[in-house]
Design brief:
With 89 residues, the protein is mainly alpha-helical. The longest helix is centred in the last third of the chain and has 23 residues. The protein is elongated, with a radius of gyration of 26 Å. It starts with 8 loop residues before the first helix and ends in an 8-residue tail after the last helix.
Length: 89
């Protein structure tokens, strides 16, 4: 019977706290997932966790983009639709 390779205690603790999960995909599925991750500037790990509902997207990143767009749109609307009237005395 072969002996197990010695592992440092830190590696054992890490493995216990972060178990691995292995899945088998077709080449096309793998390419689709990695392409999706690349196009969305995320890791494959993040994509899988989001698809499984384990984590939410980085809302700070998306809220920042949303707020910038909202402010720009608001400023455009104010310029297009606001009317400044002088009240007669």
């Amino acid at each position: 019977m072969a002996k197990k390779k010695h592992q440092p205690p830190s590696k054992i603790r890490y493995t216990e706290e972060h178990p691995s999960l292995t899945i088998h995909l077709t080449k096309q599925e793998y390419q689709d997932i990695t392409e999706f991750a690349f196009n969305n500037d995320e890791s494959v790990n993040q994509v899988i966790k989001e698809a499984a509902g384990l984590v939410r997207k980085n809302w700070k990143k998306y809220n920042g983009i949303f707020n910038e767009s909202m402010e720009a749109g608001y400023e455009d609307a104010v310029g297009d639709f606001s009317r400044h009237l002088v009240c007669p005395k």
